Amino acid sequence: MRRVVPLLLLCTFIALAACNRAPEPATTGTAAAAQPATTGGSKGGDFGPPQGDPIKAVLTSPPNVPPATGRTTPAKVIVELEVIEKEMPISEGVTYTFWTFGGTVPGSFIRVRQGDTVEFHLKNAPDSKMPHNIDLHGVTGPGGGAASSFTAPGHASQFTFKALNAGLYVYHCATAPVGMHVANGMYGLILIEPPQGLPKVDREYYVMQGDFYTVGRYREKGLQAFSMERAIDERPTYVLFNGSEGALTGDKALVAKTGENVRLYVGNGGPNLVSSFHVIGEIFDKVWYEGGTHFQENVQTTLIPAGGAAMMEFQLEIPGSYVLVDHSIFRAFNKGALAILKAEGPDVKAIYSGKEVDEMYIGDRALPNLAAVATAAHAQKAGALTVEEQIKAGQALFSGTCSTCHQASGQGLAGVFPPLAKSDYFAKDPMRIVDAVTRGLSGQVKVNGQTYNSVMPPMGQLTDDEAANIATYVLNSWANPGGRVTKEQVAKRRKELLPVTAAAH
Amino acid sequence: MAAAAAEGDGYVRVPGGNFTTALQYEDARLPLRIAPFAIMRRPVTNQEFLAFVMAHPQWRRDQVATVFAGPDYLAHWRGPARLASGEQGAQPVTRVSWFAASAYCQGQGARLPKWHEWELVAAADATRRDARSDPAWRERILGWYARPSSRALPSAGAQTPNAYGVKDLHGVVWEWTEDYSALLVAADNRNQGDPDRNRFCGGAALSIADRDNYAVLMRVAMLSSLNGSDTTMNLGFRCVREV
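Predict the joint structure of the above. Result:
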């Protein structure tokens, strides 16, 4: 249905009479969004014998994707992939012996067209310790090629398959113990383009998630050995995009320009975890969920099973850093499942303003009060801050933060929270207000003849000028002596006193 | 029973007995009865193998029949009758084909160990003859798999002997067994519950009885990927003698 509707609409506008004709299948890249309702699966994927000379497939290491095949006829495509066992960084100062397809984790990206005949050569490097093989999920046949590609170190195997189903498929090693080979990084993606190709985009990237199991703890330095026990228990030390922490951050971040369409080919090698793949700050315009033929639109998070993949496409409107995560979120911030896509270009304020206000959010504070804080902040910057502005801003900040205990009237709560109204505690030394606000106050204090013994936590979230404004407000309220505390005084005071330690509370 | 007696010529006597293998034969009744044998204390070294090819030039890499040894046979030596370094002499010989290893053992009046003999001796750790149920035993073996093989091999016999007095069964090199080609594990081992019986003539199809025993599983997988003329950078051998 998805394809029929736009075409019918188009007909309505252009030539109503022509609508009687059946729409023709789109063949160009730009019109490829018009997907057939069904492709016929593998039955519709054999376009006859390969034509022309055999073609050597272009393989790319992540995060790069080979160019579109650009072909309209089936070909014989030769793929040569070498298995290499090598020590590589898995995190800063941490290395791991990865087993790889092509020397990288994930392995080289393979791109062919539906109907192609693929002659696959799997080589196992002479210095490998292990025999290896390959199971391509895009292969029709028992084992996906595994039995036909079982290869001892220093040997090469060959098998041939016809790519009958279009889609994005995981490949992986399937040699015993399968889980260990996969856990060591032996997976990658093969894209089998539909005959009409995929819609043209400005950028394509290759990202693959995997979970890793080491004997040492997360970020424990040195060469870390594989832990079979942790793998069986499904307790990963690392969950990573493209095989190492930092593989796609900093200088290695993915890049794009605003206004560009980006397509991600995202796989999940596992061995154990299912990914809740999400890009912070973007909405996927389209997701070819499960790497299949149809797309869903307007998706926030898409599930990628272990041994599965998805394609997603989105236009970048706003410059900045977009964070790719597994939204099972502890994996992102405590196990490494984090990558950056950096978009460059001019701001578009009509769509996203950037930060307009940066201040404390205080639950029950009425909105108009925010204005006083902002005014004071601006005046502070301009060097024209008046006592009145400070008092107003201080009142807004007091309300909601301080008033919860000390009450809006400054009366406190008898026996529990000391009063601030007409208080002898700070009458002689206004800096005692600053100290209490910035450092907190614990233990016995005497205020207006009454003893209090409770705990006030430090309000560490307050900036120097906010603390100064609160102190000024208190000094000028409830029959207190008046006066003023400046931002500079607070800053100086904070430096003079040692930082509050946890033991104080 | 006394501890395995040293034979005085690099061989250690192993008493044999009942043994439960990690492999499962369709037609086998467990446990197996293994006859006493004597096994080399450590793997054969490059120096020892060099002496062998000097005495039997038909096993030099430039003279060997290609059907018995592939192009990488002894390729790590400087010449057909010369090692790459003095250090190499003490390292276990690798890049030897099954045929060459068998010939070496024959020359000693010995043979390659059968898989079960090798497995029996390799089940031991430093203090116990069967340590296979100890996770530490497994982790130690898997630890070798986790080390990249770009680093130079250690000298043969440098490790602590196991309870039989035999060294280097784990952590240095893979080893040929006489019956390696009978280890007919399906090439796609994920079919273990449904072995290809036709392929094995309805006979002795193997599967792994102890699925947790990855250490053994990987060794079997390694051996079953090979042909008799194949060599690898991490595959050596030792010999056994009947007693």
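Chain B has one domain: 11-242.
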